[in-house]
Amino acid sequence: MIKNAKFILKEARLRVSYMTTKDCLFCKLIKGEIKTDKVLETGEVVAVNDINPVSDVHILIIPKKHIDSVLTIKRDDSSDIIKMFEVAKKLAENMKLSAFRLAFNGGKYQHVPHLHMHLLAGRKVEWNHL
Fold first, then answer.
1. pTM, whole model, 2 decimals?
2. Per-residue b/e over 74-88, b at no fewer than 16 CB within 10 Å?
C-alpha cells in the first residue's frame, strides 16, 4: 500500500512537471539538454530507460522527429515508426528477451506529448501504475 502511494505521488509530480514545461521533454532529451543514459541511439530514434519503470525492463523508444501522439501520425511518419520497431527488435535481441511487450499510450495515459513506445519485459507489468 505504501509502495503504491509513493509511486502515485512520484507519478503525479512527474505529470505536473511535464504539463508545465514549455518545450517538449523528449525533444530536450534528444537535443542533449536533459542528460540521460541512452540505451541505444540511431539517426532517427533514441532509446532510454524509463525513470519510473513498471517492469524489470522498461525502455522508452522515442523518434527524434517530434510526433505528438498515435492520433497525429501521418503517412510521412511511417519510416520513423518502422525505425522504432527496428530498435525494439534490436534491443530484444541484444538483451536476449524471450518475452516482451511493446506498447503505445494515448490520451490521458500518455504522460509526455511526444510519441514513444514502451518496451517492457521481466516481472509482470503493473498496469495500475500506468
1. 0.80
2. eeeeeebbebbeebb
φ/ψ of 82, rounded to 5, equals -60, -45
CATH number at residue 18: 3.30.428.10
Residues labelled catalytic: 116
Selection from 33, 96, 103 nearest residue 61 by Cα: 103
Task: Tell me the longest C-alpha to C-alpha distance in the chain.
Answer: 46
φ and ψ at 7, to 5 degrees? -60, -45
Alpha carbon 52 to its chain centroid, in Å, reads 10
Domain that holds residue 39: 2-129
pLDDT band at residue 2 under the 50/70/90 scheme: low
Residue 61 CA to residue 47 CA, distance in Å, equals 4
**Total domains in the fold of the chain:** 1
